[in-house]
Each structure stands twice: as C-alpha cells, then as structure tokens.
Amino acid sequence: MNIDDFENAMEEEIEDQFIAVAMEISHLFPKLDLRFNLQSGSSKVRYSAPSISAEIFELDLNLGETSALIIEACFKIKEIGRLFDA
Questions:
Q1: pLDDT at residue 73 tops 80
Q2: Which burial class, exposed, middle or buried, applies to 64 when counting CB atoms under 10 A from its CB (0-12, 13-18, 19+)?
Q3: 25-58: string of b/e by CB count within 10 Å (b at 16+)?
Q4: pTM score, two decimals?
Q5: pLDDT value of position 85
Q6: How far apart are CA 27 and CA 23, in angstroms?
Q7: Using CA atoms, how far apart are residues 51 and 57, in angstroms rounded to an integer?
Q8: What's residue 1's pLDDT?
Q9: Are 38 and 58 a contacting pair, CB within 8 Å?
C-alpha cells in the first residue's frame, strides 16, 4: 500500500464515521433541524441545531470512538435545548 492508498483509506474511514455520527444523532432527535458539515480534508465535524441555538459545535472524529462522539453531541444538544428527561 502506498501513501496515496493509505490517505484515501483514511479519508473513506472518516467519511464513514461522519455518516454514522450524523445519522445516529438525527435518528435520536427526529424533530430537530440538525445540520452537519465535515470539513474537507479534515476529521472535524461541525454541527448545529438552528431551531434551538445559533451556536455551532465541533467534534474531532480522530479523538474518540463513534459511540463516545455520539454521546457527547447528544448531551450538548440536550443541554442547549433543555431537553433533559424528567
């Protein structure tokens, strides 16, 4: 495997992880208008919920397991939207 093949494989892995994170979070909050953006050539994901906040949040897909990143984002969305369970 040469360096180009390695870089392409890493980009595909990041894109797959991005899709998994965005789909799961969207599934958990079906009534919210959630927006996700994977910065080109990066592992950084920006996400927002414009219907409840103007803030834009960021996750780095290289800094954790997919499940941990989903939990982090869900907690942040619940926090800004005051969506905590009773």
A1: yes
A2: middle
A3: beeebeebebebebeeeebbbebbbeebeeeeee
A4: 0.83
A5: 63
A6: 6
A7: 14
A8: 66
A9: no
Contact 73, 47 (CB under 8 A): yes
Q: Enter the tokens of residue 65.
A: 């397991």
Round to whole Å and give the CA distance between 74 and 11. Answer: 24
One-letter amino acid at 28 equals: L
Which pLDDT does position 8 carry in this prediction?
Answer: 84
Q: Is the dihedral of CA 39, 34, 56, 45 positive or negative?
A: negative
- Condensed to tens digits (0 to 9), the pLDDT of residues 29-69 reads 999 999 999 988 899 999 999 999 999 999 999 988 889 99
Q: Which residues contact 7 (CB under 8 A, 6 or more apart)?
A: none
CA 47 to chain centroid, in Å, comes to 6
Three-state DSSP class for 23?
Answer: helix
**Gap between the Cα atoms of 83 and 86, Å rounded:** 9
